[in-house]
């Protein structure tokens, strides 16, 4: 990746050229994303900001931190990745997020929301200790702003004598409309009469008077007064925390943006925040009209019903006869909970990007007397680990957790793969972890949790993807199930495959080909001792396959079982080795890093030869 960065070139452009260039960037982003998948609407909303930013600040010298970084495509295009952007989100291609291994201009990697202020704060503290003076800029959306990490870090800025420059992109949206009091406050502030217009008007009127001789001098003197008059919108919440507030400003007007960016660049009296009003999906009417739908786009023609939708429909069915609350962390659509919300809005609560708080609140909901469900992606649940241990498991609160996208997610890459949850949950006492084999099994497990009730905190993990099913059939066939492991196929030999969860469905053709007994693992905690007793004996070849890190994974249960029972057998473990899986399609990555069909076949063939 030795491309010449473009940010120098844009400094020489006039505003007409910049406007044309913005259009070209938008087209390029749209064409690439429709071909490769990716975040669309958020990136369309940051084109002008990024152009203005790199005309005023220096991406090589100044530390610019993009929160979540799903909106940083223009940043990538301007910092030496114009050509390679064609490989966006493909295997070995450009990441959809900032990545410190990809470019020196990416000062921090992201993917999970809410880290930017802590990162910028850390850079500032470090530089201060080394007597280095640099501009440190954090850019974040109003959605990210709701997250605990952001609020925790903002709270410290004044006390560490920060000079951080925060750029807040307020498009009134997270993925769905943004929630919470802060969102309401931000949305209420309208661009009314900004400093720029005020200054221009003042200049005009002064030019015809005597004082006009020294316009700039007068302007300087008046500056503070102006600030007070024009910023009558000042958001007290930031000012009260000692963070100077400027705005709101039209985030799509390059000239104005430059003016304000220049202003905050020279502001060195403490931390400040520049509030921009942006339009998610800007420039493409269909994306502007439906920013939620075009937040991220996929290139697949989807004939399958996603597992998330199976969850949504099942909860929607159960909602008719059950009183419960389901929590989402700003992922109503991604989790399929919009289906439930359409009919039972009071049963879905979006608390924004606040995973730890949601888990804790869900525990208290359960204690208050009603059934409580938390539906969060496996990767984002990582942030709530302590809430699970301290607030849920330790107090044995029987909350139902639905862990969506548990496993390899594909093009989003390492920040989003949900390949650690078996490990981070298995170690917690007094919980149950289930891994349904297919869509019906997933729906049945949820149904069973409601109908039979829960004894313990219960986690149902299922991957990204779906099946070509009729959802009405799934609902009609709902039934109470046990959690025993399932014999899929019996072979008259010593090869025993223990295949975790939905991999049974995903690789169903492969299992047919293999000369082995195939067992579908539906429960990880607890394990099915009856099946293990039946099949794991001296001399067998046990093969475990799981879409999770091998460290801490299901395989370790089997290792322990074999050791404990003094069984002398071969054990082969398939799963994710001790490294971060890169990006690629889900199938590509599963084949290469998890199931490895050729390797698997060879093991089985060679065991036959030994016989
Ligand atoms: C911890 C965490 N939870 C959830 C998400 C999923 N997510 C990705 S972008 C996004 C919305 C962010 O909204 P905002 O910061 O306002 O940016 P916008 O997309 O509106 O530009 C969410 C919820 C995430 N990335 N990280």
Automatic annotation (TrEMBL):
Transketolase-like pyrimidine-binding domain segment(s): 305-469
Endoplasmic reticulum among keywords: no
Pathway entry: Metabolic intermediate biosynthesis; 1-deoxy-D-xylulose 5-phosphate biosynthesis; 1-deoxy-D-xylulose 5-phosphate from D-glyceraldehyde 3-phosphate and pyruvate: step 1/1
A GO term from the CC aspect: cytosol
Keyword Transferase (UniProt): yes
Example of a GO MF term: 1-deoxy-D-xylulose-5-phosphate synthase activity
One Gene Ontology term from the biological process aspect of the record: terpenoid biosynthetic process
Alphabetical list of Gene3D superfamilies matching this protein: 3.40.50.920, 3.40.50.970
Pfam families xrefs: DXP_synthase_N (PF13292), Transket_pyr (PF02779), Transketolase_C (PF02780)
Protein EC: 2.2.1.7
Enzyme class: transferase
PANTHER family: 1-D-DEOXYXYLULOSE 5-PHOSPHATE SYNTHASE-RELATED (PTHR43322), 1-DEOXY-D-XYLULOSE-5-PHOSPHATE SYNTHASE, CHLOROPLASTIC (PTHR43322:SF5)
Family: Belongs to the transketolase family. DXPS subfamily.
Protein name: 1-deoxy-D-xylulose-5-phosphate synthase
Taxonomic lineage: Bacteria, Thermotogati, Thermotogota, Thermotogae, Petrotogales
């Amino acid at each position: 990746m030795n491309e010449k960065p473009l940010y120098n070139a844009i400094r020489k452009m006039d505003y007409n050229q910049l406007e044309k260039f913005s259009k070209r960037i938008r087209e390029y982003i749209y064409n690439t994303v429709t071909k490769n998948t990716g975040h669309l609407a958020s990136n369309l909303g940051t084109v002008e900001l990024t152009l203005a930013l790199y005309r005023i600040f220096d991406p090589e010298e100044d530390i610019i931190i993009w929160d979540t970084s799903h909106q940083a495509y223009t940043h990538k295009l301007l910092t030496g990745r114009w050509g390679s952007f064609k490989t966006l989100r493909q295997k070995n291609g450009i990441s959809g997020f900032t990545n410190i291994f990809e470019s020196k201009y990416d000062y921090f990697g992201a993917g999970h929301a809410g880290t930017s202020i802590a990162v910028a704060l850390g850079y500032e503290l470090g530089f201060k200790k080394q007597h280095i003076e640099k501009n440190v800029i954090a850019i974040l959306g109003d959605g990210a702003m709701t997250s605990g990490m952001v609020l925790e870090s903002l709270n410290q800025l004044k006390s560490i004598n920060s000079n951080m420059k925060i750029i807040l992109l307020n498009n009134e949206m997270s993925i769905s409309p943004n929630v919470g009091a802060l969102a309401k406050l931000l949305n209420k502030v309208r661009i009314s009469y900004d400093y720029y217009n005020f200054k221009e008007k003042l200049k005009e009127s002064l030019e015809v008077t005597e004082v006009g001789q020294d316009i700039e001098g007068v302007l300087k003197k008046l500056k503070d007064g102006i600030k007070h008059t024009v910023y009558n919108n000042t958001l007290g919440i930031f000012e009260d925390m000692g963070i100077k507030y400027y705005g709101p400003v039209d985030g799509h007007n390059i000239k104005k943006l430059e003016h304000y960016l220049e202003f905050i660049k020279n502001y060195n009296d403490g931390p400040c925040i520049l509030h921009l009003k942006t339009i998610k999906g800007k420039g493409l009417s269909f994306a502007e009209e439906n920013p939620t739908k075009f937040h991220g786009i996929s290139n697949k023609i989807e004939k399958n019903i996603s597992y998330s939708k199976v969850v949504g429909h099942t909860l929607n069915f159960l909602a008719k006869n059950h009183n419960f609350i389901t929590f989402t962390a700003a992922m109503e659509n991604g989790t399929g909970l919009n289906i439930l919300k359409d009919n039972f809005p009071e049963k879905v609560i979006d608390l924004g990007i606040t995973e730890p708080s949601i888990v804790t609140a869900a525990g208290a909901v359960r204690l208050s007397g009603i059934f409580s469900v938390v539906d969060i992606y496996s990767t984002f649940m990582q942030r709530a680990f302590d809430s699970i241990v301290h607030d849920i498991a330790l107090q044995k609160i029987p909350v139902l957790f639905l862990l969506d996208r548990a496993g390899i997610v594909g093009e989003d890459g390492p920040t989003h793969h949900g390949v650690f949850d078996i490990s981070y949950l298995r170690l917690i006492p007094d919980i149950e972890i289930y891994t349904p084999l297919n869509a019906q099994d997933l729906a049945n497990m949820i149904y069973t949790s409601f109908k039979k009730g829960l004894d313990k905190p219960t986690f149902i993990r299922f991957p990204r993807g779906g099946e070509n099913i009729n959802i009405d059939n799934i609902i009609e066939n709902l039934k109470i199930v046990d959690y025993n492991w399932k014999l899929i196929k019996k072979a008259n030999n010593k090869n025993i495959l223990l295949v975790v969860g939905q991999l049974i469905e995903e690789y169903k053709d492969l299992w047919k080909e293999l000369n082995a007994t195939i067992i579908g693992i539906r429960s990880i905690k607890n394990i099915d001792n009856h099946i293990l007793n039946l099949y794991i004996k001296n001399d067998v070849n046990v093969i475990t396959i799981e879409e999770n890190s091998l460290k801490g994974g299901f395989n370790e249960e089997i290792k322990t079982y074999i050791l404990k029972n003094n069984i002398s057998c071969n054990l082969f473990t398939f799963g994710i080795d001790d490294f971060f899986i890169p990006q690629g399609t889900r199938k590509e990555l599963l084949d290469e890093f998890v199931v490895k069909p050729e390797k698997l076949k060879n093991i089985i063939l060679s065991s036959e030869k030994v016989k």
